[in-house]
Specification:
The chain is α/β, with parallel strands linked by helices and 160 residues long. 32% of the residues are buried. The chain contains 5 helices and 7 strands; from the N terminus they run αβαβαββαβαββ. Helix 3 links the parallel strand 2 and strand 3.
Length: 160
């Protein structure tokens, strides 16, 4: 499971959650174990099947085509949200309250990165945008030494 998810979500009251790019379900399992009604989506059928085999709620879905009512929490760790107006609009439509969006500290014209996303959100307010050191000893992501963490919340209308 991603340590950033624990850092940012552990104190939240469980509700509904969406894990975009859930992979084999480590974050999904952590959320479920803490009382969240969590759904994971991923484009990889094998990863989703491994989630299902563990009793987790997951489905094969293309982010661009996924439709659902808003979730209390949307978690995206290294996911492929397109760096387009449509990609941002979909992310905001899926987020009912809190968005936790984490990606490696790199640049991309195709995939939304946290700093770019922070500048393009319209309905969510950025409450945190931090660079964090990461310590991964092996595997495909070991060469990434820093992540960028974006936490945003639904804007609330001022009481009138």
């Amino acid at each position: 499971m991603n340590a950033t998810l624990v850092d940012e979500v552990a104190d939240l009251r469980p509700g509904t959650a969406l894990d975009v790019g859930c992979g084999e379900g480590a974050d999904l399992q952590w959320l479920t174990d803490r009382g969240w009604e969590a759904l994971g989506i991923d484009f990889a059928p094998t990863a989703v099947q491994r989630c299902l085999d563990r009793g987790l709620h997951a489905e094969v879905a293309d982010y661009n085509e996924f439709e659902h009512e808003p979730f209390d929490l949307v978690s995206v760790h290294y996911g492929g949200v397109p760096a387009t107006e449509e990609g941002v609009a979909k992310l905001e439509a899926l987020t009912g309250d809190v968005l936790v969006f984490v990606h490696h500290d790199l640049e991309s014209d195709a995939v939304a990165m946290p700093a770019w996303l922070a500048e393009n959100l319209k309905e969510l307010e950025v409450v945190k945008l931090d660079k964090r050191e990461r310590r991964v000893e092996g595997g495909a992501g070991a060469h990434h030494s820093h992540d960028v963490v974006l936490v945003a919340k639904r804007r609330t209308e001022a009481a009138g």
